[in-house]
Amino acid sequence: MIKRKGILKIAIDSPAAAGAGTLAKTISKCYNLMYLDTGKIYRIIAFNKLKYPNEFNLQFIKKKIKNLKIKDFNDKKLLSDEVGTEASLIAKRKNIRKLVYSFQTSFAYNPPKKFNGSCLDGRDITYNIIPDADLKFFITADIKTRAMRRYMELKRLKKALTYKEVLKSIKNRDKSDYNRRISPLKKTKDSILINTTNLSKRACFLKIKKIIDRKINI
Ligand code: C5P
Which of 42, 78, 99, 174 to mutate to test the pocket of ligand 1 (most atoms within 8 A of CB)? Predict the structure, then answer.
């Protein structure tokens, strides 16, 4: 694998709906980093499994990953609860994680020259995808806050789910993501914990910016 030298690599892990995506995007913009929401890859695979159940096999997934375009990541259909739940089931499969691994690592270590580095968020980024990241964060919030944020997001997308249903779904996803055998969600010792429960998006960003600036000596 080609590794660009002297780039800034930021790794973020977090449970569902903790606000990591929003933060990662803002950080990436601020420091001109290439951003990858790794959950979207599992969601794209899950979406295709639900849409083409009979064609779904490793070869099919390989082709999908190879032909991924930026616009595929922005498809609103990926945001449904059904796709999220399927993604978390798919993410337990070793052969699927293996396929996704090289896509993610080349993204992290060899971003296009116009970027100063990369920022990835997911579940196993800090210890599996970028173990030597310059900065590692574990972003979390209490479960009710996360469920409320996801509920509001789904409501904006006109998805007819109750808060209770969303809370149940997030609880199940946490259980699956934290307890699975392969690449479980965990906070590594060298990750900085950021609890976003009582912080606005701006306050979270400023808190993280301060830590990054200190590290890169701005
Ligand atoms: O972050 P998001 O909710 O979009 O992720 C969907 C699912 O994909 C997660 O619940 C998790 O099971 C899986 N995932 C993963 N490893 C990652 C990113 C996401 O297993 N790096």
Answer: 42
